[in-house]
Amino acid sequence: MSTFEHAGIKRGFNSLTALLVAPLGLSFELRRRLIGTERAYLELSERAARWPGVRGERMRSALHRRLGTHIGEAVVLKFGCVLARPPLNVGRMTVLGHYAKVQHASIGADCMVGDHVLVFDGRRQHNIDRLDVPINAQGNNVTRVHIGDDCLIGGHATILSDVGDHCVVGAGSVVIEPVPDYKIVAGNPARVIGDRRERSAR
After folding, report:
1. Phi first, then psi: what are they for 44, rounded to 5°?
2. How many Å apart are CA 170 and CA 185, to the nearest integer?
3. Residue 136: what pLDDT?
4. Exposed end of the chain (fewer CB within 10 Å): N or C?
């Protein structure tokens, strides 16, 4: 099969998936008026997370594009992946693993985000300073977390702060401070244990 034929099949498949999710886009417009944009978005994202197989991966990307999220070319959203809170951005060729959950965040291109990774709205999502008011009545501080290009985020990691370009975050790590470009971090809380530039120089 030629490259031209392959590209044509890919365009046709993308058009088909866009057509399949179109009714959900319409239902989103109705639901957001009833329960608000954020809740309506999460509701559809959780529903779409259960679509199986390659078709499910393509349909998830198509749905999120339809809902206004920037999803780059060839992004893969694995089974169980939930994009929870718009606005969101996922760069081209990035893979979000099984059961990953991403809130109000921007993820760059060419990233590999492992299974069960959590990307939350910053390290202080909930105000806890007052003792005379329940925590759930104190409001929150939503911070948009940025993950740069060409990053590897190991499975079960929790990201609460920015991660620079070309970084590696070890499996199970909890990132609470910004990670500079090229750094390798691990642990809870995550600490720098290496630099990719030094490894490539060996």
Report:
1. -70, -35
2. 6
3. 83
4. C
**Crossing angle for the helix pair 53-66 and 37-48, to the nearest 10 degrees:** 170
Report yes or no: 163 and 146 within 8 Å, Cβ to Cβ.
Answer: yes
Contacts of 39 (CB under 8 A, 6+ apart): none
Long-range contacts of 53-61 (CB under 8 A, 24+ apart): 55/17, 58/13, 58/14, 58/17, 59/17, 59/20, 59/21, 61/17
**What is the CATH classification number for the domain harbouring 86?**
2.160.10.10
Dihedral angle computed from the Cα positions of residues 177, 182, 183 and 185, in that order, rounded to the nearest 10 degrees: 80
Say what the pTM is.
0.87
Q: Which domain holds residue 120?
A: 3-200
What domain count does the chain have? Answer: 1
Angle at which helices 37-48 and 3-35 pack, to 10 degrees?
140
Q: How remote is the C-alpha of 94 from its chain's centroid?
A: 9
pLDDT given at position 14:
66
162 contacts: CB under 8 Å, gap ≥ 6: 145, 146, 147, 178, 179
Closest to 122 in 3D by CA, of 153, 163, 173: 163
